[in-house]
TrEMBL record:
It is a multi-pass membrane protein. NCBIfam families: flippase-like domain. One of its GO terms (cellular component) is plasma membrane. It comes from the Archaea. Its main location: membrane. The keyword Transmembrane applies. The keyword Hydrolase does not apply. Keywords: Cell membrane, Membrane, Transmembrane, Transmembrane helix. It is found in: Cell membrane. This is TIGR00374 family protein. The chain crosses the membrane at residues 21-39, 122-142, 176-202, 208-226, 238-258, 264-284.
Amino acid sequence: MMDISTYTAIIRSLDNKSLELLGIALALYYTSTLIYALRWKIVLAGMGRDLPLLDLLKVTLSSIFVNNVTPMSRGGGEILRVTWVSKKHQIPIALSTISIVYERIVEIVPVMFLLLLGITYFAAQVLSIAALFMLFILLIWLKWEEFIRISVKILKIQLTQEELLKISELKRKPSLNILAVGLSSMVWILDIARLKLIALAFGWDPNIGLLALISLANLLFGLMAFTPGGVGIVEGGLFGTLTYFGIPSTLAISVTLIERFISYVLSTIVGFLVLIGSGGVELWKALKSH
């Protein structure tokens, strides 16, 4: 599904307006990577470490490349992030690990909202769904320590009791929590907007509920994938999801290929170039040797 001639044929079939929409979709993807770097900077600052945003952006882009060429979702990229800031900025490995685990945990909030939003595709009780979401947020805040422990188990992350305690203590910084959840939510909003723009480029105008379900499916297939970058599995899953909801196969193939061209092909190329230009190759080689 990643043949260059297929991409070329799809691009040539689009008019200037459609190409502009795809250009904006591409810009939104890299805006998301900037938000990821900004969120990480804020989390590290909340833990007493202030790192340059540009350097965190470089390692974020590089980690996407590593994720895309190594098996299992996010595994290699997260290790690169920890190693990068530990080696280049003398951040203790335990602290950098905690910052990344905390990011994964706060992402659960917007993912749950995305799930509730997706439910609106099948149900019209928007107010009831919004009330459920607010109740979910309240329960997280009241049961923060339990939420952390459950999240760590679900994510299958090994932490010491001291590291768990440090994450739990972040509840005492409500501004950090609000910013982290807010930035995580922005990333998902941009993800849905990117899918919307890609769909519009091919003359399809899906509603937000369906886009939320497609975005969630993309996430789940990526997490379940065991191939480098989820190649084959994510494409097949996204195509299957689209056709399941009645999207014509030709349109489903076009949307799938362009989405993966942006989020996998180009991100791999850009990440590789950033890794080379930022002196991260030695770190990556060290990771590969282990």
